[in-house]
Design goal:
single chain; alpha/beta; two-stranded antiparallel ribbon; globular; TIM Barrel; about 45% helix
Length: about 350
């Protein structure tokens, strides 16, 4: 982002707890709970606290520990759409799980239920057993993106209400139109996740927002500069960042809680070994996670939002000046730390931003 260009407006979001705790599964201060009831209360409270968005990750079985509960993303997203008023609801989607015509129809349905607050987050599957055990198969990394690109090229015009004729390697769609169309905007927003070259190309071509996994500010600046320089039709690509927040009155208190979460996460070491074995070795997210110790998923605390209230607020503003608009945040214990963030960090960010 050039120095002369104003930073985008800041939007704060929360990860729905569809597979329970984000940093450690054995935490006495946050007993494992991935239930619908908890997630509904969480997202309704996030909306009341002023958060702008929630991301509902999609898994059919728990990717961290298969015997544990896993909330289904799309039925939950539809229900959240009906039971909230303002917050954006983003449902993740793995293209192999739904035919694109069916998914586009579902997305438009939730767009109507939410009155224009719905978005999809296309992600490349990384948890091998989830697809293999279902008999779907787990294609090679780049092949999955070839499939996903064709899949999205069907979904996108159908969500616009256009009549589609498409014949490709995987799908044949003839004279297809979905009604009712979107009465609130051109179509639901499209977020793209993943940092591999195929993911970046897909985001530049068909995405509205590119989600970046949590990592240091200089790395994020480089990723944004690379994507922003790519040719693109239509409006400029926007950027989001996943991050795990630990904010306290003092830096020492924040780091003490960080170490506490590391100790709790160590109890999950056997589970993590299985999870690592199930992860696609070409997943850039997994490689990013291995660069340095951290807690939380999708980069977690690597983004550096660990410190005093002022430090965390200043770092958020630094990411925003680099081009990050949407901060998709994690905490543990989630509800208590989310409230702390709303009370201590949000007002500081607004005051510092002027």
């Amino acid at each position: 982002m050039s120095a002369s260009k104003s930073p985008p407006p800041i939007r704060f979001g929360v990860w729905a707890l569809v597979h329970g705790s984000r940093a450690a599964l054995q935490d006495p201060d946050e007993p494992y709970d991935a239930s619908w009831d908890r997630n509904l209360r969480l997202i309704q409270e996030a909306e009341a606290l002023g958060f702008d968005s929630t991301l509902v990750a999609q898994h059919t079985i728990n990717p961290h520990h298969a015997p544990r509960d896993q909330l289904e993303a799309w039925t939950a997203a539809a229900a959240l759409a009906a039971l909230t008023d303002r917050i954006e609801i983003i449902a993740a989607i793995k293209p192999y799980l739904y035919h694109p015509v069916v998914l586009a129809k579902m997305a438009l349905g939730i767009e109507h239920i939410s009155r224009g607050r719905f978005a999809i987050n296309l992600v490349n599957a990384w948890n091998r057993p989830e697809l293999e055990k279902a008999g779907i198969g787990f294609a090679e990394h780049d092949e999955r993106y070839v499939y996903g690109r064709e899949w999205l090229s069907v979904v996108e015009p159908l969500m616009r209400g256009q009549t589609l004729n498409h014949e490709g390697a995987n799908f044949r769609v003839t004279d297809y139109t979905l009604r009712p169309a979107d009465p609130y905007r051109a179509r639901p927003r499209i977020y793209i996740g993943g940092e591999s070259e195929p993911a970046r190309a897909l985001a530049a071509e068909l995405g509205d927002v590119w989600f970046i996994n949590g990592q240091p500010l200089d790395d994020v600046r480089g990723l944004i500069a690379g994507l922003a320089a790519r040719p693109r039709a239509g409006s400029a690509l926007r950027f989001g960042l996943s991050a795990f927040v630990i904010a306290r009155a003092t830096e020492a208190e924040a780091h003490a809680h960080h170490m506490h979460l590391f100790e709790l996460a160590a109890k999950d070491s056997e589970i993590r070994v299985v999870q690592q074995a199930n992860t696609d070795t070409k997943s850039v997210m997994a490689a990013t996670m291995r660069r340095s110790p951290r807690v939380g998923s999708n980069g977690g605390t690597a983004a550096g939002l660990v410190g005093s209230y002022d430090q965390v607020a200043e770092r958020i503003l630094a990411f925003n000046r680099a081009g990050i608009e949407t901060f998709m945040l994690q905490y543990q214990p989630f509800e208590a730390e989310m409230r702390r963030f709303a009370v201590e960090i949000m007002p500081r960010v607004r005051a510092m931003a002027g």
